[in-house]
Amino acid sequence: MEYIKVKGIVCKITEYKESDKILTVLTYEKGKMQIVAKGVKKKGAALAHAARLFYCGEFECVCQNNMPILTGAAMIQDFFGLTKKIETLYYASHFMDLCSYFIQEEQPSNEIMSLLLNTLYLLMRDEGDPMLLTTIIQFRLSAIEGAAPVTDFCVECQKPLDDDCSFCFSIENDGISCCNNGTCISHAVFQAINHICNSDSTKIYFFSIPKSDLCVIFELSCRYIEKIAGKHFEILDSIKEIL
Ligand SMILES: [Zn+2]
After folding, report:
1. d(CA 107, CA 148)
2. What's the gap in Å between 142 CA and the centre of ligand 1?
């Protein structure tokens, strides 16, 4: 019998049989995987604590007929604070939805997992504007996927960008334009996008942006990630309703 041990976070729960649940877990080692949690709906079940959305821990499983069955779980980080406020829950659910889309099965996903857990942590601790955290996770995800917006030359005339240019962001051409095509952006927005996509992963949260620019960069990051994914992320609609 094969035993596996993975670190990850529960992103979806599916009811299964009378007393079981199937957990969809985003993991560092094996990407997105499904784990059967047997008997967790029974009162006093030993593993019930792990069969919850946002449970982040180390999962021990034994594989039966190619299906991992949960045999043990130890919490690494308590993320249940994310569920206390509806706004926070929306943002957290969107972050999970995004990462769940990009993380594939059977693929180690260290970079996306670190990005997800770090961003959830800052969101839960109220450290950083949720719109800015969303912007960061969305642009950084595009960079991890090898599809960061172009920030070193104009996507239309190919001239190197310098500080005297006025900048636009072209969703159509995947990056910054000096040719007045797209959404006009300030230099602060340009620098922030460059920073999020290209700096070391430990530094991506450390920059500031004028409040007046926040809506612009947030909206661009939403449109850009949806273009990269080729998909509409529905929770964004709920987030925009409460802004
Ligand atoms: Zn140009």
Report:
1. 21
2. 23
